[in-house]
Amino acid sequence: MQNLMDSRTLAYINMFAVLGTLENLCELVPEASELLEGKKPISIGFEVKGGPSATLYFKNGKCRMEQGCSNCDVKLPFSSCEKFNGLIDGTVTPIPSKGFTHIGFLLKTFTPLTDLLSKYMRASEEDLKDPVFFERSTKLMLYTIGVAIAQIGNNDEVGKFSAKAIEDGSVYMGIKNGPGLEVVCKDHRLITVKKVPEKYRASMIFESIETARALFDGKVNSLACIGTGKIEMHGLVSMLDNINRILDRVALYLA
User: Fold this and answer.
1) N or C: which terminal CB in the chain sees fewer CB atoms within 10 Å?
2) How many CA atoms within 13 Å lie on the side-chain side of 181?
3) What is the pTM of this model?
4) Average pLDDT value for residue range 127-134
């Protein structure tokens, strides 16, 4: 079995889990929506050879992502998954194949947005002392991790092994009295929906945002938290067991 990261899986995570979190950044962080104020609606498409493709739509201070990039104002092509991953880690500067006249938006709006996302996703100890920042950062991490679970389950060899054992249905993952998401399994393929589901077969609920943060940062052990009741698990045990196996891979890819 594969134990190391796979660049194609990382590209899917970077596309849908990392860039996809710009949707939530614009909802949760006023500074993000302010960057888009007064801007005409615009869409940026990302096309990765041998990997994912998606389009980010920016309108009225909000952002949404859709799969595919057949209809976009700006198109950024990448010759490989490694090149696209380089965009995310800051080592590759893409050149648009379409919409070069919108370069100003890329430099003056899109780049500051991704920088702001990085600030929240790779938060400093100092920033986390601010309770508002702490809450926003942890919520954003929940969404990123939730989407990463689906991408690993669908693309990573170890993740696919676990996904093959998951029965059809939904798993609810969330913070008590806070945000949550749904990981849907259908024919061993996973999709993450970034809202609390009405129905689900299993659930994993963090007792507080502090517990969620400590787990996300690797400061506590999930089994220990289950033992002390800081993480509540209900429903079909086999679903939770396999989702947790995939979750163990998330830290490897998002480190």
Assistant:
1) N
2) 22
3) 0.94
4) 96
